[in-house]
């Protein structure tokens, strides 16, 4: 199969990533909606839902990272013309997601008691428990939805994800408003209502996407069974072998944010609340990079499937450029209008929120710089995964995010007494160092893939360089 032209590949990457981008913004919108709604109850409620939401996201990465490899397997099989391999990737992904859900659900159920050991405010801990218990029921549909999303992304048919997720955002807004404040005859459940609302929405999203895949004619040639017809041990083993390093990497990356939140929570509850506001802005801005990361991962794998390293390289370079442009605009907005952004989350007229607002505006400067580098890093890591190198992003995260970022940031924060600002400088230095390592590694893996193809090795880029 011929290599796509640069124009064709740019259009394909945008066709995959733009709907995903809108979907990720909508998903983040659900989290932000929860924070805005409960934020009107008080800063403790805001801190609790923000911190619990962070940990929920981190723990979901146990499954999300594992099943993200479904897209790589399906895309490479698609490029190689292997229809059965495409379908099998989706079906075995559903089995892998079900297995992964067990430890995730247990961890979320006991999230409150676990965080109590980290010297957090007791009132915040009780609110976290109230919110996280109903949220446990959203794990299975959330992971199943992620499998199907990875699957149709590999087929470059991701537009339906945007429609479903944007609709879910509106439903989430209505449900949380109704259940948190007790509207339309329902009792006021507070943070518990936010947990139930989000869980209901996750189940609705899964059922909607499953129905679309089963009914739409665009999937007639590659339609998987939502309930797997059999267990393919070889494919399942490959998903775990390639996916577990992704899980570990994403856990490290997600936990970095959460550990940083715990560290500032040890300083004061106001700083923790401000940190959660800044995190929400970062997560929203990085939606573009996450979507482009999903696109580059499957397009690099597709390039290897058609046995063209030039096609894989072209897909990566286009995605790097698009990510850089998107994040520059997002960072510039945060730098220019910090008060406007921060004011969305808390009532600026309430004197009790003055301290949180002031701290959050100050942190926005560092958040914009961090997200600028982290956005490109996300795409580069996924380009490596498209080459079936899922281990390099793991050790790069250990060195860059943790040894340099958290390590140096903690030293600046506490022994050097720079507080939350010192912690952010450490995180920025860590992500810059990670970028240097990631791009160096990607160039080496491409060279290895090219050598493998020239030697006519069927499974390229699967072994260590």
Could you give the topology of this structure?
Elements: H1 6-39, H2 43-67, H3 69-79, H4 83-109, H5 111-116, H6 122-135, H7 139-154, H8 159-181, H9 191-215, H10 233-265, H11 269-285, H12 287-305, H13 309-336, H14 338-342, H15 354-386, H16 392-413, H17 419-454
Can you put this structure into words, describing what you see?
The chain has 465 residues and is an all-alpha fold. The protein has one domain (6-454). The chain has helices at residues 6-39, 43-67, 69-79, 83-109, 111-116, 122-135, 139-154, 159-181, 191-215, 233-265, 269-285, 287-305, 309-336, 338-342, 354-386, 392-413, 419-454. Helix 2 (43-67) crosses helix 6 and helix 12 (287-305) runs parallel beside helix 15. It is globular, with a radius of gyration of 22 Å. The two termini are 26 Å apart. Mean pLDDT is 87; it is low at 457-465.
Keywords:
single chain, 17 helices, globular
Order of helices and strands: HHHHHHHHHHHHHHHHH
Count of distinct strands: 0
Overall structural class, as computed from helix and strand content, comes to mainly alpha
How many discrete domains? 1
Query: How much strand content do the residues show?
Result: under 5%
Give the fraction of residues assigned to helices.
over 70%
Shape: globular
What integer value in Å does the Rg equal?
22 Å
Number of helices: 17
């Amino acid at each position: 199969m011929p290599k796509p032209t640069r124009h064709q590949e740019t259009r394909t990457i945008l066709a995959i990533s733009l709907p995903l981008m809108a979907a990720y913004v909508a998903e983040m919108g659900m989290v932000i909606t929860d924070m805005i709604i409960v934020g009107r109850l008080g800063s403790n409620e805001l801190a609790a839902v923000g911190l619990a939401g962070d940990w929920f996201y981190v723990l979901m990465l146990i499954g999300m990272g594992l099943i993200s490899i479904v897209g790589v397997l399906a895309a490479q099989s698609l490029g190689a013309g292997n229809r059965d391999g495409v379908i099998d990737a989706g079906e075995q992904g559903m089995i892998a997601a079900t297995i992964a859900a067990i430890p995730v659900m247990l961890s979320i159920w006991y999230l409150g008691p676990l965080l109590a050991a980290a010297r957090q405010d007791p009132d915040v801990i009780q609110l976290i428990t109230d919110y996280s218990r109903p949220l446990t029921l959203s794990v299975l549909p959330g992971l199943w939805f992620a499998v199907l999303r990875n699957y149709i992304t590999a087929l470059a048919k991701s537009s339906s994800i945007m429609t479903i997720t944007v609709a879910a955002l509106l439903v989430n807004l209505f449900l949380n408003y109704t259940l948190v404040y007790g509207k339309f005859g329902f009792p006021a459940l507070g943070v518990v209502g936010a947990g139930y609302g989000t869980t209901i929405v996750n189940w609705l999203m899964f059922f909607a996407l499953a129905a679309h895949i089963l009914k739409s004619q665009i999937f007639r040639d590659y339609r998987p069974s939502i309930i797997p017809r059999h267990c393919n041990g070889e494919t399942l083993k490959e998903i775990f072998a390639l996916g577990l390093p992704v899980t570990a990497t994403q856990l490290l990356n997600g936990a970095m944010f959460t550990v940083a939140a715990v560290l500032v929570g040890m300083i004061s509850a106001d700083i923790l609340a401000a940190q959660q506001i800044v995190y929400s802005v970062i997560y929203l801005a990085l939606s573009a990079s996450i979507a482009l990361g999903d696109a580059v991962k499957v397009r690099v794998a597709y390039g290897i499937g058609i046995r063209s390293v030039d096609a894989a390289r072209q897909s990566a370079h286009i995605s790097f450029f698009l990510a850089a442009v998107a994040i520059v605009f997002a960072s510039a907005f945060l730098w220019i209008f910090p008060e406007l952004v921060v004011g969305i989350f808390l009532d600026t007229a309430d004197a009790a929120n003055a301290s949180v607002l002031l701290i959050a505006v100050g942190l926005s400067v560092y958040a914009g710089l961090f997200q600028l580098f982290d956005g490109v890093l996300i795409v580069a890591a996924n380009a490596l995964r498209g080459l079936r190198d899922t281990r390099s992003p793991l050790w790069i995260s250990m060195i860059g995010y943790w040894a340099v970022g958290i390590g140096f940031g903690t030293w600046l924060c506490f022994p050097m007494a720079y507080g939350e600002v010192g912690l952010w400088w450490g995180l920025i230095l860590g992500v810059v160092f990670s970028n240097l390592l990631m791009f160096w590694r990607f160039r080496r893996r491409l060279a290895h893939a090219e050598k493998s193809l020239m030697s006519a090795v069927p499974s390229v880029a699967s072994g260590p360089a």
